Amino acid sequence: MQSQDVAPRPTPAASSDGPVVDVEQAEAALVEHYPRLVRLAYLVLPPSLGRNRRVLTAHALTQRALPRRRASASVIPAQSTGRDGDPGYSFVRLQVLRTALEAGLPLTFKAWPKRSQLPPLLPQVWGLRLFPRSGGADELALDQRLSALSAPARAAYVLRGLERLTDGDVHKVLTAAGVTDPDAALAEADDVPAQNALLDSPEFDPCSLQARPTDLMRRRQHGKAALVAAAALAVCGALLGLPGDGWGPDGAAAPSYAQNPSAQAALDPAKLTKVAPTAWRSSARTDFSVWPARGDRTDDRALLRRALAVWARPGESVRVSATPATPTGGPAGPPQLLYAGTIDTAHVVLLYDGLRVVRYAEPKDGTSGAALDFGRADGATRAEAGAVVLARTDGNVRYLTAPWVTEAAERDLMQPRSGAMELGLTDGVTAPLASPGGQNGACTSWNVLQVTDVSGTRLMTDLGELVPAHLTTGKPGYTKEASGAQALRTWSPMACSLQAVRSQGVRSVNAWEYARQSLPAAGGSAEWVCTRAETWRGGGARVLAQFHTPGGRYGAVAAKAENSPACGPRDPHVLAGVLWRSEAGAWYLLAAGSRDTASINVSGGVSGSAKGYLLAAAAKQGAQARLKGTLHDGRTINGLH
């Protein structure tokens, strides 16, 4: 937060030379001009408070601007119709401005905080976050430039633009509000071009609001915790009345949470687990638990303390994200430090607690805009613990690789014949590589990370989460790495289908070419590929049966399913069909099953049957049909849907 040149609040006698304003006159002015006063407070308040708290604080400061008794006010003209020379408006505007400036002062141990520096008691909105409607690029740019000004300079800019005051009147208002150097504030405000119309836009209107829910999972957890605490309190109250050693100040209870040794240890940077750089060489495990601590800030205790504190209790302005079914609570004990350093424009800390990889990031110039990301990582193997996303900037991604990785490279999965481009490794951190997928929704390439160690080469892809997904190929139960030539050819037309499983907590994705089919009318040979995305949580696997015709760049999704065992080790079978049109214009229903399919029957809009695992039947455009297959062991399977 920028320092502010604001003097202590003057005593009532300091302004006794102005006209007397009674409570009724001030209330009338406040009610009439309430939206403008709240907008003034919102614009002067420091943006570091976050938009939700700025809204509530602006309303609270405005509502507290009424005097408790008759008071004197220095009349400074307000250049809008209906406010000229109104001492009541002049008084409440001065009170709003003064308290808004005080709200931005840093808290110190030398003096009690002022009421305006603390979160408002009223108004309060439970279960919702409120913020003004978003404006355009011009409003956003202005908000960013105002945030770089000191509070007195923001006040000077707003009084000029919103209140249309001259510099002389602005000087008087700032002086009355306690600003010790109004000239410096006016000079600093000159650095931002005047854009008076934008100050009246909805972007800065805290009376016209949008509502969004707070963190629903955290609310549910807090609600459950409150019920458990209430039940425990009731039980303890009953036990206190029983004879025995249980009667006493605390009985056998542990100290309060803030003084609990385990909780204190979890938030103490000195107790972070730091693994030796060579521990992985002799360990029976090859997962995140044997990663050493790397980065140029592993000894920055202030940064580490902030990361641990935000993990335990993230503030309202912290952007929190988590893969599905990943707990977001604080660590149960001291976590393991994986990385602490400066990447591009941010300080980044990576931590691991055996279940989750947690990433804390803050800008280099402060903590405003801090982010906290949770990634599930329990049960990770050597292949899945090969890399973690460290940063995403300007469409690029950087990884922190495992200590056993000797080489890293970038490969376009859609270009199987092109080679891999080597990426530099610095203390395990890769050079930036382009994020997978194209711009504006077009999928023109799919860049993946290729890592090499003594056990071989494997591919990993960023799906919008901390831990990249491991790519494999082959029949379920007999999969292999997707880095071979044949595997790359299989994956090439299927790469863009990975967009369908972004941010789903995906652990690995396997592509299995389960059938090849000769197309009718000498149309060439088509491939049937089943891709299965497994998740870290176990459930929620997504299965796609895709059909790739000769010369086609992309595979067509013929069928899809969620929470299905198809194409997996538990049920390595699949059956899917698709309507296909020949070059002559004839329509066919094509179907294919895994190679242990003995026969296929189709009914509904198309009738037919075939021995073996392939079927081609004449059909009409838009026909609907049902597929059923019989395996060699006599079991029947339905078409994937």
Whole-number radius of gyration?
32 Å
Roughly what is the average pLDDT, rounded to an integer? Answer: 84
* CA(first)-CA(last) distance: 55 Å
The strand count comes to: 31
Helical residue percent band: 10-25%
Low-confidence stretches: 8-17, 74-82, 239-257
Number of helices: 14
- Biggest beta sheet summary: 10 strands, mixed
The portion of residues forming beta strands comes to: 25-35%
Shape: elongated
Q: In terms of structural class, how would the helical and strand content be classed? A: alpha+beta
How would you concisely characterize the structure shown here?
With 641 residues, the chain is α+β, with helices and mostly antiparallel strands. The chain is 23% helix and 27% strand.
